[in-house]
User: Fold these one by one.
Assistant:
Number 1:
Amino acid sequence: MMKIIVDVFSGDDPKALIRGTAAAVNVYPDVHFIMPGDPTCLERELAECDYDRSRLEILPASEIIGNDESPTMAIRQKRDSSLVRGAALLRSDPEVGGMISAGSTGAILCCGIFVVGRLRGIDRPALAPVLPTVNGGNVCLIDCGANADCRSEYLAQFALLGTSLMRTLCKVDDPRVALVNVGVEGHKGNMLTSQTAALLSEMPVNFVGNMEARDALSGKYDVLVCDGFVGNVLLKSIEGTAANVASEMAEILRRKMPGGAAEELIAEAAHEVMRNYDYNSYGGAYLLGCRKPIEKIHGASNERTIPYAVGQMRSMILAGLTESIASQLEEMSRGHGETR
Amino acid sequence: MMKIIVDVFSGDDPKALIRGTAAAVNVYPDVHFIMPGDPTCLERELAECDYDRSRLEILPASEIIGNDESPTMAIRQKRDSSLVRGAALLRSDPEVGGMISAGSTGAILCCGIFVVGRLRGIDRPALAPVLPTVNGGNVCLIDCGANADCRSEYLAQFALLGTSLMRTLCKVDDPRVALVNVGVEGHKGNMLTSQTAALLSEMPVNFVGNMEARDALSGKYDVLVCDGFVGNVLLKSIEGTAANVASEMAEILRRKMPGGAAEELIAEAAHEVMRNYDYNSYGGAYLLGCRKPIEKIHGASNERTIPYAVGQMRSMILAGLTESIASQLEEMSRGHGETR
């Protein structure tokens, strides 16, 4: 039976995430759950839930890594934290398929690098959410926040990781890779994008050129490559703008169509649109480039996030994503001599 | 009488912009217009327009700087281009208050630096649109694309420029300056933001800390400081997302409320919202930090853009923006010893 670790204690509201994990036990009968954390606290909260206890195991861990701690220091000093214990088990137990954590990006990245370990050929694991496009498809944004300062070699590796992810998870044969830039023209950009564009055009990925941020969700691209700072700004501005625009349009329509029936339909529509852009409710973002799959869910995730994230992790494990990435990296580096 | 230069030839559709300028002549009876460019082409197009010819002057210029040219090379080699001729007149004629150009950001920036000249204390002029916030206010995003690679000193100067702009143009007493970042926590960010945050907290601006991209238009800030790459991604992702969300919500509502009357109101509402986020139709972005005001309008601007942009430029000149920025820079550097 597939084993998945769920680290709830690194999040803002562990209790809600514990209830969410119990709910996930019921949704996925083929998954065995492991929860690192304080047993007393876990038992107390789980006692209130109705679920199959035989498929939920507690991994004692007395410490919690907070969102405001220095990631490298915290990983080194808090060996008995839920995140480090979970990562160590993920690394050592071949039966454990993956880990979901509500911890900070920095702490998860450090655990991925120093505890779980990187795949051969990867300098920096990257955070990659898969977002819905306007034409019903998907696009992978990599990196969306793990590496604020990047070298062009990292971005080139992100292109490989994103390509593998979209091939494996979304069954896209030859993912179109675009470089997030300030213009589509070749000469536009900063030093990082100029160097990256040169590298990408030499790599065994389907590099289609520069992309302007307004086309991120256009469906014209499958993988969007950028440094973690730019990716984070892009993702959050999409989220924020979607919420603003949906409310503004609802407000305008309520003035144009006063009355109860219309009001309800308008509210429903606004809600529906916002849900499409609320990446928090989507589950998580994949930390790609480590030896085992890790999924980061938002610190402010709620009960409903967990079953969704477990579903995503389960799919990744079933699809053999990491093995597939590793073999594609191997193949690419063999086929290409080297990637750097 | 106030003189404003309008460089239409650097845009995608000069003819439309010529008609737009003729329209602006009629809208602003207190403005004298100067159009650099090919006299034959200008006369031919203007012959079709109905406007007060006594307030429109042609400044012969035989060349055009294209969007795909290297800015520094183009400025040096095309001395007789509409942009360079306009910039030279802006520099030399005290009666000319400002220039509007549809040229590329790079070319306009180069003209600003090498032809018009920078204000004392400014290393890099920056492009700053003033955007509407969700609560009916305004926010200045600086830099939104002039400087793709920045040092922290540039960003610190952007904070000064944005502060002056919001004081002068929007009458905000003590503009709240935020640093665009990946999290509000002090330790988050990349090398550039860490260095910039340290500088900003020592400067005579009202630095309120980091801002996440989702809060850009929240109205909690008056000036958003970032490098031109990040600013451009932020601006374009807001534009793109707004258009996507408005169409999606209209689509959902059309399904929920079939019928002609509702359909029309929904289309109207979508149109109204999109207009708020179509920064192209807004007129332009200010190139701040030069000795005279320059306004960049989008290359794809249309006829209606010009009167709007002229209105903005006219306000800037009437408010004495550049003089005010210069004196505030002077005062800040006096009051603070030095800004670097």
Number 2:
Amino acid sequence: MNIILLSGGSGKRLWPLSNDIRSKQFIRMLSDGQGGFESMLGRVYRQISEVDSGARITIATGRKQVSLIKNQLGDRVNICVEPCRRDTFPAVCLAASYLRDVEGVKEDEAVVVCPVDPYVDASYFQALKELTEMARSGGANLYLMGIEPTYPSEKYGYIIPASNERVSGVFTFREKPDVAAARAYIAQGALWNGGVFAFRLGYLLRKAHERLDFTDYEDLYARYGEMEKISFDYAVAEREKEIRVLRFGGQWKDLGTWNTFSEAMADEALGRVTLNETCENTHVVNELNIPILCMGCRDMVIAASGDGILISDKEQSSYIKPFVEKIEQQVMYAEKSWGSFTVLDVQEDSLTIKIVLLPGHALHYHSHEHRDEVWTVMSGRGRAVIDGVERKVSPGDVIVMPAGCRHTVAAESELKILEAQLGRDISVEDKQKHEL
Amino acid sequence: MNIILLSGGSGKRLWPLSNDIRSKQFIRMLSDGQGGFESMLGRVYRQISEVDSGARITIATGRKQVSLIKNQLGDRVNICVEPCRRDTFPAVCLAASYLRDVEGVKEDEAVVVCPVDPYVDASYFQALKELTEMARSGGANLYLMGIEPTYPSEKYGYIIPASNERVSGVFTFREKPDVAAARAYIAQGALWNGGVFAFRLGYLLRKAHERLDFTDYEDLYARYGEMEKISFDYAVAEREKEIRVLRFGGQWKDLGTWNTFSEAMADEALGRVTLNETCENTHVVNELNIPILCMGCRDMVIAASGDGILISDKEQSSYIKPFVEKIEQQVMYAEKSWGSFTVLDVQEDSLTIKIVLLPGHALHYHSHEHRDEVWTVMSGRGRAVIDGVERKVSPGDVIVMPAGCRHTVAAESELKILEAQLGRDISVEDKQKHEL
């Protein structure tokens, strides 16, 4: 099975655990069924592998997520990186072109596109397999998954099928109706649009060429900014006559808000948390290294990370986005392909961060124009290169790097470094990369 | 007026803002009436000064609080430090002896003892003045303040007066009754025991000598550990026949729990806090430098500091103590006479702290046996002494101090220093002080 996972998301709705770097699909908080934790991404990857161990998985995403995807899945998946954010149709076109020109997938092979973050069981991936088989057989140009609604949601798109059969034509599409309209659609047999599309690769490439005349993946990548911002639904699905929808009645949850996410959490409390006996239906996630004590909390969700602390009634937690947008907060913690960083202290003219560098990984060789830096090695061993001179580093070593000094470090064992940044104009933009 | 303020408190009930070092009386969160904030200690000091600008104020306290009292009040008060914790009677004896032998107060002068943390207005201090005047006149040996109860509390001691007159004899005392008994006492005209006692200095010193035969303050200080742990009420008040109680009907609040403390807070939200429009009767204090977002919170108190985060229903917040006792957490933030320290990061074999040193202050000259330290100067200027050698320090300077190295630093302007502690056995006990 060729599967394109669309990984986007601004990460506001699960603040403070999600942020501009760590979208909700990367939060490791679901049960992996073996006493451990996994992210939505890790879960979907595991579930696909269980249903089809030979699946070719390509994640279509933006630059910001690459490091984090590699941190969680290593090189087990292809990553097709958009040079800039467009919408789902351009992203699928780029991934389709990547499959043909880089991966050598034939134009008559089937491909299925799927969001990276549905909370589902194996039956969902069986249905994806079925969709790709139908697409390969060529009975229609496009196959969708229609999810049987469990309530008249205002947030989803609806597919009104032509019949009540398991596989049916599509009568029409309806976007985010109000509750009364949603109820009426459901009475007519409407299904939620799950954002799943299966097609033969050649079909999609023809649709892409209708909008931009490119030669191959490299050319499309170079000219990606010229593509119109348009969704796959609007650009393709709603215009296609030869379309079928597969009715899906298995488990399907959208863990897009704290209210739904907390229900899927492995435990009611994660991290250093005490809930007294008067707490009811309350979920707490604590990523800070200080304790949280909850007393008499009812129907609440509480989440604390280096970015902030949310304390919300579960029902209210769906309305978080506008409030989070008003909060100005730099990213305080991020997982990267090479490890992680944590902001420990922010002052007007200094910033202190902790860097954890995984064994075998190194930072880019870089310098800063407007700040001095000091590294204090807290634990682990490695090799630093400072203005071209290599040296070993071990706990207690201190390296002073004035502005302009080129520097990097590679970890032999897990390396923890305290980095003091000093200057009046400290900015993530102030970073010049160099060749070693 | 000679006034002894008793400053104790374990600091569990207002966790996480109070801790072993910072008892509730030091939390700067009350309105100072001028748009700023003050602590209970600062407020009581200000109020006493307003009623009697010449008052001689002596704070009886333990070692742990000295640095913090000096941080808040400087040298404007006397501090009488117990060498070890006993109970209120020994503490008052030590302070009385200090007044005679160090401050030269005569034995026929009156002294009033008062807790450091009542939330009151000027009428309370007028009443203290009246009590000292009555004590000086010598009509009785001991004068108490009886507070008119506002509800049948189970937490207070009750004074049953002999009559309903404003100044009356005492029929008897009752400790922490149940609600029914409290109601019955109140019906009889009972008053709360406010922990205020006025007497002539000689009277109290005679009581002290009945229990320990000491020569002077220095001798009592040296033998303080021999004093029995006994409260002033039990040792003196409940045994004294020549006793009077002054009925006090003015404002008096015990801000001993979050429920009552939050009502006296200057604002419903302090620090980086957003409360959405569905929050009701909720108070939030945020001392962390990350934002807190509250949605749909009702009748709650939320407090976050470097020591932890409390999220509690207001009524439940009175039952915090046993839960806090179970939380093992080192002190993450402390104000000291010389400035403050904040723990930024804790690892198995390292600890990172931020030191803020106020201008004109210096650390003790000290060394550590079992850890190396590295200082990175983040801002400010000063002079360090490292193994006897003095050097200037300014931002970006790094000082490496292996175990055994003697070190100190004095601030010329406010100095912020990042201190990395490295070693397997990092402990606050590992500190050897030296003469410079």
